[in-house]
Amino acid sequence: MGLHFFTLGGKQFWEDVFYYQKWRIQRHYRTRKYRLLDNWDICRATGTFEECRAAFVKLIEVFELPRQSGNLVILLHGLGESKGIFKPLWKALENQGYNVAAINYPSTRKSIRAHIDQLDFFLTHTEDVKEVSFITKGTSCLLLRYLLNASFAWNKKFTIGKIINVNPTNLGSDVCAAMSHSKILKLIFGPALKECAPVDVNKVPKLPQGIPLGLIFCETYKDKLLRPLVKHFEGIKVPGDLTEEDFSHQNIHIKNSHINIFDNPDVVESCIHFLNKGTF
User: Fold this and answer.
1) What pLDDT, in 10s, does the model give residues 102-115?
2) What is the pTM of this model?
3) Based on the domain organization, do 118 and 108 belong to the same domain?
């Protein structure tokens, strides 16, 4: 299995492709090498996916990992973020009895289509789960729209429960469109920057009907910093614009003074309430 060593969890260069009881198998976005991380982000094995999966099976008995069951809530961060933003929500959901997988994906390194391939691989290898719900932040709502409109083998393996979009960009962002003209910003934020522009977003299919969808709008410090900038661009849409409400009649606006909106207990409580009841 090789040496065991601590990692930083793979925030921008590793993508999660397997999750079970807080253990993860990750794949490097460029080298395509795999590694198995435990719940402390200690690397327990490296090699192919099959080798890491086999190592995990052996370690199940060593660490006495219980079999997971029931519902899984998948948390998807936005462009330039990592799963770390979800820590307060993650803990609260686990206290409610949910299985929770906050997924890392290299949002600034690959296109939206490439991220769909990762999520397809992830869901194909999801085990012992009957229902999957999603909570997205920012631009990841677009990933979910692509994902749930495609035909994959896992579509028949479990049902889709509820979906929550937090500060969604379902209408796209003219700010991203303007930033995509800068070579430096394109290098920093990657190909997904242009794909979040309104022209490209118009091509993204809407979520399938029949799935309970809740929208949470919450002003952030980033919104406040962008507001003077967007005035220079005609027709700009600031994240959290009221027209986003058209995507669901189940929506709520929450006051916020936290840098990370998931540090806001009202946001966390609203997410839990919607998952439990289907309403805010």
Assistant:
1) 999 999 999 999 99
2) 0.90
3) yes
